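quick q for whoever's on today - can somebody do inverse folding on this one?? i tried earlier but teh output was garbage lol. tokens:
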């Protein structure tokens, strides 16, 4: 969701120490037959990564069926303008996202060249903060305007990231968690869990970060990443701030290529179908699930040993799946997903609106905004196509360019006239993009019933491509250990200590 450019220096986290890879398959003991069929509902990054990891753990024999009612990629999608494709959904990936990096490497995909561009913050009347070409000058300006706030913030985010990075080590050793709480607890103890339950602004004020810094720097980053304000929980806020770094990347040809690539590599069976209901079926000792679904050619149903739901089960008509014959572990799911509108406009930016009557003097590639009542958009940025040719250069503001505007509501004619002097085309994508965060909600269950798993609950801790990938790996390991009754690999305490003694 975020855009490149950064107000904070790069995190130098040493990774080599974390990446000790164990072989989780070694400990597998045969406990009856392996599953014959597994269903994954949803082919976004979560579902396609789950199919890939399930194949890794359960081996080549099991049939993996992936149901997708729309396009492969889910919230990773592109739109075409003037013969070029642009990201309309999840756009950037952080340098520390090890699963996403590994996928790109395994699939032989390429990193997209990133095009430098300056960022600024606009408060509805004027630009109040801008990046320069000179890193030290940026630091000096931040220091001058906000004192020690930004150093405190940076240390806080770095400490959280460093703890979060432990997950890769746990997963490499084959450990899984039966709930989002257990996973967070193993990484950052009760501190991480508390961070999912208190507002970001409270945590930052307690750290000694100034209100001015929160309003002028933190709020604009939350608006561009999650379309929400600084009352979102501190944990998702920290993940979002980690994404405001300048060590970001994307996939050449579009991030959604990771999804189709993983499905292919997993040798998964892709079905274009809407799943309508899931019912439990007992045959003797065994519990199976019957999925009833609708395809373009008619209705069907199929029995599965293990089912993973990798699509949001929100209350506002999200997945539309009915559960029959067994109780779910929640009375009601957390509240709804937040609507964000991504508008891709091919036209001339109205730089006068930002205080630059002469467009040739407008130096910014992206504009973030503070929380101002009469501002109708969260951000506007000049965007580059998903395939960047060698001779490509970013359009100058006086030329017609392609811009992505994030806004809470669809833009009307007057909004477009305000932001653009004139335009050739407008393409609107409305996303149920990420949870509507509030700090009082709980985290949904991962295990809905024996051998029935829910991936998207992780989004209520934080929503990002890498969070879905971490959840996918966790569910594949969990499903494997539960199937083989390996309780010693699930929800173990004090893993850092255990892993040290294993080596």
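ok took a stab at it. sequence:
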């Amino acid at each position: 969701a975020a855009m490149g450019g950064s107000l904070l220096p790069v995190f130098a986290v040493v990774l080599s120490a974390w990446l000790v890879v164990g072989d989780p398959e070694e400990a597998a003991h045969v406990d009856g037959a392996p599953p014959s069929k597994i269903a994954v509902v949803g082919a976004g990054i979560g579902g396609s990564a789950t199919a890939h990891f399930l194949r890794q753990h359960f081996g080549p024999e099991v049939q993996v069926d992936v149901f997708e009612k729309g396009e492969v990629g889910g919230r990773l999608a592109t739109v075409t303008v003037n013969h070029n494709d642009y990201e309309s959904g999840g756009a950037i990936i952080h340098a520390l996202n090890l699963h996403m990096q590994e996928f790109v490497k395994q699939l032989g995909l390429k990193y997209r060249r990133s095009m430098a561009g300056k960022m600024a913050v606009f408060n509805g009347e004027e630009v109040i903060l801008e990046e320069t070409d000179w890193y030290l000058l940026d630091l000096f300006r931040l220091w001058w305007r906000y004192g020690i706030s930004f150093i405190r913030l940076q240390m806080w985010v770095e400490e959280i990231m460093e703890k979060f990075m432990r997950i890769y080590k746990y997963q490499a050793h084959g450990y899984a968690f039966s709930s989002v709480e257990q996973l967070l607890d193993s990484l950052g103890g009760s501190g991480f869990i508390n961070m999912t339950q208190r507002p970001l602004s409270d945590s930052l004020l307690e750290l000694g970060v100034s209100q001015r810094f929160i309003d002028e720097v933190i709020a604009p980053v939350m608006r561009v990443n999650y379309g929400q304000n600084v009352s979102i929980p501190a944990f998702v806020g920290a993940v979002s701030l980690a994404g405001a770094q300048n060590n970001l990347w994307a996939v050449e040809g579009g991030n959604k290529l990771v999804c189709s690539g993983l499905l292919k590599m997993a040798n998964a069976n892709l079905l274009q179908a809407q799943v309508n209901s899931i019912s439990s079926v007992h045959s003797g000792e065994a519990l199976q699930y019957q999925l009833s679904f609708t395809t373009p050619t008619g209705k069907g149903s199929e029995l599965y040993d293990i089912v993973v739901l990798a699509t949001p089960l929100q209350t506002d008509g999200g997945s539309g799946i009915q559960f029959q014959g067994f109780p779910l572990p929640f009375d009601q799911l957390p509240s709804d997903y937040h609507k964000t509108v991504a508008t891709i406009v091919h036209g001339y930016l109205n730089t006068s609106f930002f205080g630059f009557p002469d467009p040739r003097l407008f130096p910014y590639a992206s504009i973030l905004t503070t929380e101002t009542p009469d501002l109708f958009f969260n951000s506007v940025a000049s965007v580059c196509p998903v395939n960047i040719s060698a001779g490509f250069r970013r359009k100058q503001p006086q030329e017609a360019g392609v811009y992505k505007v994030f806004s809470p509501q669809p833009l009307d004619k007057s909004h477009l006239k305000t932001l653009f002097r004139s335009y050739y085309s407008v393409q609107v994508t409305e996303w149920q993009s990420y949870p509507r965060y509030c700090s009082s909600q709980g985290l949904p269950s991962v295990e809905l019933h024996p051998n029935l798993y829910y991936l998207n609950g992780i989004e209520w801790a934080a929503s990002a491509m890498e969070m879905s990938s971490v959840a996918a790996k966790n569910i594949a390991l969990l499903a494997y250990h539960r199937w083989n009754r390996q309780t010693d690999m699930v929800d173990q305490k004090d893993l850092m200590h255990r892993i040290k003694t294993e080596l």
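fwiw The two ends are 38 Å apart (CA to CA). also The chain has a mean pLDDT of 88. so keep that in mind when u check it
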